[in-house]
Design a protein that fits this description.
This protein has 14 helices and 28 strands. With 626 residues, the protein is an alpha+beta fold. It has 2 domains: 206 residues, Beta-galactosidase, Chain A, domain 5, CATH 2.70.98.50; 377 residues, Glycosyltransferase (Alpha/alpha barrel), CATH 1.50.10. The strands form 8 sheets. Strands 6-7-8-11-17-15-14-13 form an 8-stranded antiparallel beta sheet. Strands 1, 2, 3, 4, 5, 12 and 16 form a 7-stranded antiparallel beta sheet that branches. Helix 11 runs parallel beside helix 13.
Length: 626
């Protein structure tokens, strides 16, 4: 099955529905749902992104629960697309008895008071297109990750689904269709426009078609207005817009946190145990997230994410984590849901993520790079410079105390700690950016000692992280293995693009880690065996590295290769299977879409690249009133 679909509106007619990633995503910044190409909601958590699932057929087809709308006819075709410039998804069904559209969205719009209305609700508008086809609705919620049975009770205005054992959970389904037929899964004649509104909270007041259609129009208008405010990119415009819409959808409205992905436990390798919960906010993505969103003109989203970082990260000597919950939670205890079979029997299904307590030194550099970027980009908008300065000094203390120690590295390897080259480089980044922050804030006495230690770390990396025999920077000190993270060294400012060691590293990494145009993270065995899939963000890093050494044609070919891995709607996950180009890992993956935008901007001329931020900036002007 070809995946060379380069538009977001590719047809699904005649395709075999075998790929778990033939999904669209709808959402409103509060939660989201995955809608299959066959019109079934197979993943949805309410009331929030990280709440227990209501539907989880994605992780267990027989037990997880789903919400499907389909023709009664056995043979039918579908076509799925997003309404242009929106996160509103339309699935068209065509069968011998007629045709109809299912329009799926989660309400999001501005209220008259200027706030955002984004309730934990899923709306499904069902509209006949040809004739009055017979349809069937399978409303099969399995609340609380399907651990215990869910009971459905019919009332006059709605169906109520609730748990019968354990913690109480409930949802409400409102519709102008016959609720008895909906509950029983009986055939229904589609006589006109109909709706199904699934709400986490019981609705107050009247629910009818007019009210639902109004919510649809307001939601559509909200997304269109959001898109029109973005900068127009001259190349790869549709890919950039869809990726930006994914990032906005995954931005948690109450706090500004951006989720790594909408799902948990979609495997990096089928049938294996590389399955993690990604419904959290990784700090590692911070500086690129801020820069990329600002580049696109979405300053408010970027600033809210920056403010979330400042709220979540401790100011002084508390331990800094690599990830936080979307409300800033620190403890993200990992456990397994052993009653779920997992996608394609890929156990275990996990919630929580044990990586929160790992020691990963790269996070220090990421945070200070993000703080520096925030100061430059949001100059005059940062609420408390003194608190930010306290945070900066606290992070520097962590670097001074720990940079010589081994850690788990950026890939969160769960084996013995090592001296990862990239972790050392990010410690250098942290001190280098801290010195720039000090200069911006007029704290010049800190610049020299921090710069001196930064140069000491840089010399250490060149002495132990670069292997002349291998001809490249390696994954860890004393190791012959290569790692795609080292493709970031030039953009971080650690090494110049004209340094022969840089070009040698790019070429060696491409020879060793590139297969069929896509990149491994690394190829040697770790504590879970030998990696078997491509890691999409690493391919974007390779494209950027090729551009830095002037190999634009090879960079474009590689970029087109990874764009072709997107599903029928242009959505990307974390990983892809080399031979089949099948998407793997959690989906849709914010980091993949972020890197897509970042790379496309380089082809468009590269506004606000890292080196632009590192040019000399005027120090802040402090007056008596300040």
């Amino acid at each position: 099955m070809s995946r060379r679909n380069t538009t977001a509106l590719a047809s699904l007619q005649g395709r075999r529905f075998m790929d778990s990633f033939d999904y669209g995503i709808i959402g409103n910044g509060r939660s989201c749902a995955l809608v299959s190409a066959r019109g079934s909601i197979d993943w949805c958590c309410l009331a929030d992104f990280d709440s227990p699932s209501v539907f989880a057929a994605l992780l267990d087809q027989s037990r997880g629960g789903q919400f499907a709308i389909e023709p009664v006819d056995v043979d039918f075709k579908t076509d799925q697309r997003y309404l242009r410039h929106t996160n509103v998804l339309v699935t068209r069904f065509v069968s011998s008895s007629g045709a109809f559209d299912v329009t799926d969205f989660m309400p999001r719009y501005h209220t008259s008071r200027g706030s955002h209305h984004c309730p934990p609700e899923v709306v499904r508008l069902v509209r006949p297109v040809v004739a009055n086809p017979m349809i069937r609705i399978r409303f099969e919620p399995r609340l609380g990750y399907a651990e215990h049975p869910t009971r459905i009770t019919r009332f006059a205005r709605y169906l109520k689904a609730e748990t019968t054992v354990g913690a109480h959970e409930s949802v409400y389904l409102y519709s102008n269709l016959d609720l008895g037929a909906v509950q029983a899964g009986e055939p229904l004649r589609l006589q006109g426009d109909s709706y199904l509104l699934l709400a986490y909270d019981q609705k107050i007041g009247r629910v009818d078609l007019e009210r639902v259609v109004l919510a649809f129009e307001r939601t559509k208008l909200y997304w269109m207005n959001w898109c029109v405010r973005a900068a127009r990119t001259p190349v790869y415009r549709e890919h950039v817009e869809r990726s930006a819409l994914v990032l906005k959808l995954l931005s948690y409205q109450p706090t500004g946190a951006i989720l790594a992905a909408a799902t948990t436990s979609l495997p990096e390798q089928i049938g294996k145990e590389r399955n993690w919960d990604y419904r959290f906010c990784w700090i590692r993505d911070a500086s690129m997230t801020i820069r990329t969103l600002v580049n696109l003109g979405h300053r408010r989203v970027a600033r809210r994410f920056f403010e979330f970082l400042l709220d979540a990260v401790p100011y002084k000597d508390d331990r800094i984590q690599v990830m936080y919950g979307i409300r800033g939670q620190k403890e993200l205890t990992e456990r397994t849901l052993d009653w779920l079979s997992g996608y394609a029997d890929s156990r275990p299904v996990r919630i929580g993520n044990a990586a929160w307590c790992q020691q990963q030194h790269d996070i220090y550099g990421v945070l200070l790079d993000a703080i520096h970027a925030g100061l430059v980009m949001f100059r005059g908008e940062v609420a408390s410079l003194e608190a930010l300065w306290t945070m900066t000094r606290g992070i520097v203390r962590h670097i001074e105390a720990h940079w010589k120690e081994p850690d788990q590295g950026i890939w969160e390897i769960r084996g013995a700690p090592r001296h990862f080259t990239f972790s050392k480089v990010m410690c250098w980044v942290g001190l280098e950016r801290a010195a720039r922050i000090a200069a911006l804030l007029g704290m010049d006495e800190y610049c020299q000692p921090w710069t001196t230690l930064a140069e000491r770390i840089r010399s250490d990396v060149f002495a132990h992280g670069y292997d002349a025999q291998v001809g490249a920077f390696t994954q860890s000190y004393g190791s012959p293995y290569l790692d795609a993270t080292n493709l970031l060294l030039c953009r971080l400012g650690f090494i110049g693009a004209d340094d022969p060691r840089w070009a040698a590293t790019v070429h060696a990494t491409r020879r060793e880690l590139c297969r069929e145009g896509l990149m491994y993270r690394y190829r040697h065995a770790d504590d879970f065996g030998v990696p078997e899939s491509a890691f999409l963000v690493c391919t974007f890093w390779m494209v950027q590295a090729l551009l830095s050494i002037g190999e634009r044609r090879a960079a474009r070919e590689s970029f087109e290769e990874v764009l072709g891995c997107g599903n029928h709607l242009g959505l990307l996950s974390e990983d892809v299977e080399f031979a089949t180009k099948r998407l793997l890992g959690n989906f849709p993956q914010a980091y993949s879409h972020l890197a897509l935008i970042d790379t496309a901007l380089l082809f468009a001329g590269g506004p606000l690249r890292t080196e632009t931020l590192l040019r000399e900036c005027e120090p802040f002007d402090f007056t008596e009133d300040d």
